[in-house]
Records
---
Amino acid sequence: MTAPVIQIDHVIKSYTAGVPVLHDVSLTIARGEVVVVCGPSGSGKSTLIKCVNALEPIQHGRIVVDGQDLASKGVDLPRLRARVGMVFQHFELFPHMRVLDNLCLAQCKVLGRPRADAEARSEALLERVGMTAFAAKYPGALSGGQQQRVAIARALAMDPVVMLFDEATSALDPEMVSEVLDVMVELARSGMTMMVVTHEMGFARKVAHRVVFMDQGEIAEDSPREIFFEAPRTERAREFLSKILTY
Amino acid sequence: MSSFDFEEIHRSLGYLFFDGMRFTLTLTFLAALGGVVLGTILAIIRQSGSRLLSSIAAGYVNLVRALPLVLVIFWFYFLVPYLGQWLTGATRPVHVGGFASALITFIAFEAAYFSEIVRAGIASIPRGQEAAAMALGLRSSQAMRYVILPQVFRIMLPVLLTQTIVLFQDTSLVYVLSITDFLGAAAQIAERDGRLVEMYSFVAVVYFVFSFTASQGVRRLRAHIAVPH
Amino acid sequence: MGYHWNWGIFWEPSPEGNGTYLDMLIQGLWTTLLTAACAWAIALTIGTVIGVLRTVPLRAVQWVAVAWIELFRNMPVLVQLFLWYFVFPEVLPPSWGVWLKQLPNAAFLTAVVGIGFFMSARVAVQISSGIEALPSGQRAAATALGLTTAQTYRYVLLPMAFRIVLPPMTSDLLSTIKTTSIALTIGLGELTARARAMQEFSYQVFEAYTAATLVYLAINLIVTLAARWLEARVRLPGYGKA
């Protein structure tokens, strides 16, 4: 069995002293796996995903990404982060740069790619997410769904080993959610390792290998897709599913 | 009231503008440039993790902002020669010319004000921008240089320009060191020819026209920036 | 370093014969505070009037306010002081002009009027911003109750506007105190002027200016604390920013 891409061991995290947001969380994601993390607000799922690329520090436990322990002495965090793609709830495109420049910036400054190469790769990715026509536009001229697709392309431009999605569709108007989910489905089917924090259970049903349910800072259930949806093992997961699947 | 001597003004135009106003504008331009650069550095230091450096920068900014410009001018006038002596290892205080002394003073003074403007600008950028830059693997310095600061200057340009207009007016205070800026030149002529009314009225009008025109320009710029492109 | 330190200089008698150098600085401090207080009083009074006029729904009246603000904003304070001190007496009828120039407190009065008018423009901008920051419904509600324009300003708009602009006004008050130093150019013996005099008489440059610096810092601290206390006292629960 090859080493997991992400290994989270017994992580404890607090924001202010004494108020733990994550209680002893352990999770493994193997290469090519698509893991959906769901749960009610305040369950710690967004915090957890931010710990995976060290945007948030942890107080206890260990996180190993692509073979590197985040807390180890010689670790070069920026370089490691370059291998972990992240898509944010509020897209976070850089408003003062055109779409193409948004994609090229990190390729050139972090990976050292020549501008011409970066542009070529960027154009290919924009085509993959269906945004070729917008390469010269500023983010302000794009709708939410369009911006998020560009954000996904921007993360992919770094050739990441894993893609993290932090509630990527939660800030979108309903009619734009599917255009983004379509891109994420295509990505999953192409074999990308993905950790997806989301409420979109339809997406989970389609492409997730496993579903992780978090509640109050703990992982309450971690089951393969079919089991989670047909016969959830825990009471809390059952309750959660019944509430969100009603509509 | 004796008649207003317009000829006096006409005669003095050369000296007033070629000597006086040139000094004023040069000082304003260079001090603004230097002040923005130093102010941005101070703002970035205050943002950084280092508690010690951050406190020193904050202390400097708060100290300078609490003092009258006149006092700061006197301070630097006496301090700079000793600093020069200390820096160059000379045996006696280094003599610094009027312009150099004024320039150092104004850069040091205005930097404190520019730094507050830049700090406010940095604070207004959503936190997610920094997170997105870090998530892409950019280092802090790269994030600041390519993502944060460009946005800060776009947003803060009108405020920075307004502060520069204030600086333009503040330069008149070099009068206390008898340096020949626009006002100083007028004062010299006024005293020599006994024509205070003409000279000071003219100076007031010129300052007014320059400042008013500039601030109207900034107003227009502000309106232009507000339109989404 | 060729400089000879002497911190005991403050207790040595000054050549002016009025006491020690310390006494000289204290006189300067007193002058600074008195000038600033009087100038601020003028700035506050005129500034509030102009600020109110700026927001009155009458074009012509607003224009007057705008003209006032722009006039005093677009010239350096020093130039304004010179206009009051040198030009104003000449513009008046001869007998008035002569009387003005012979006043014993000319520098003080000029500083108070000049700085007062200069700052009145700043105060006017603050007040008008404060009024404009209020929800437009406030004015409508007051009118609907039958209050006249004057009553609306007096009882509804101004009390809230003052609370809103208290913080930036504090900064304007501190600015007024610092601006008094500019009046040394017309002979006002305020703190910076006295520090300079001390420097010229005793050659103890750094001691003199350090003392002045410490005093300005102390004034800054006291005024800021007092303002914070005032803000806390007039704060309304549930209203305003965190």
Note: The longest helix of chain A spans residues 174-189.
---
Amino acid sequence: MNNKLDDVLSKLAINKDSVIINRPNEIKLESNSSVTFNMNARNLKIDTNKIIEIKYHQATYHITIPQMVDFVTMKSNLRGGAFAVTPDGETMISHGVAVSIKGEKSLTDLVNQLVDKTKSIEVSAQTLLDFVTNEIEYSDAEATSGGETIKRPDEILFTRNSDCSGKTILYASLLQQTKAKWCILYYEKHICIGVAGNFQTKNTSKISIDGVDYYIAETTAPNAKIGEDYWNGKLRADNLLYYQNPENGADIIDYQTKKPLEFLKMKVKD
Amino acid sequence: MKQILYILILLLFASCNNKEKEKPLIYEDYQYHAANMIAQPKFYGDSLLYKMTGADAHLEMFYVDTKKFFFFV
């Protein structure tokens, strides 16, 4: 146990001497007994240059601590208002704020591993959808938790699972690293992505926004093909509530009225 | 006289912009962010500590107010 503890402390603590180790009774301590210890976060030994790897079947996600912190501090996200007010007076969470900016290094690297740059935008968009539908597990727990869980793209890649919200955020973040034109489509209790392009599909499921056809990309159906209908027509334009197009900033637009929703203005109290 | 006024306005804008610049993060900031991430297995998985440090320990608790970790091995 002492060897293991020594090994752990040498990896975990900058100053091993300032770690408080709780050894209730060292004489009676069995080899498999656990030892507790505590230390301040300032003593946490981290390497800001270390590349953390998350292995997937098709690619490996690489990220450093500073890149993770850039997601936390919203430097790598599209930003904008977080809570919008619907015409019914209800509050909805903007998913666009969690989507990555173009050129975010960890996601650019992942996209470069997944897509063949010599292929068309449509092929790349489908390849990235395949990754999200097949390598990121659908989380029932997240979907039925009662509240809306919004994960950032790196968090989804770390946990390897999410619901339609997270999968949509990740897919949008991957598309951001390509030249694909996309938008977020908000339905009653569902969200997905629309991708512009020439998609040859069995059932052409698409939404027209500002003269552009966005083919529905369903992130929760394994092996989903862009433009195919997996919801028995429920994702048609009549049922679309709102959309968000990153080219128009953070605004969430009411599909029927074409008016942007107001965002809640939060004031931080002193 | 006009030139001086323009220079003063320019300097005023420059100083305002400088205030808006974000302070670069230091090692301590990264430590604190890393601690918060390690303490959120729902968002980063339960092996982030190992992935970040290589240490095979288990986090019992992280107190945000005192910034103190409690681990067990």
Note: Chain A is about 25% helix and 20% strand.
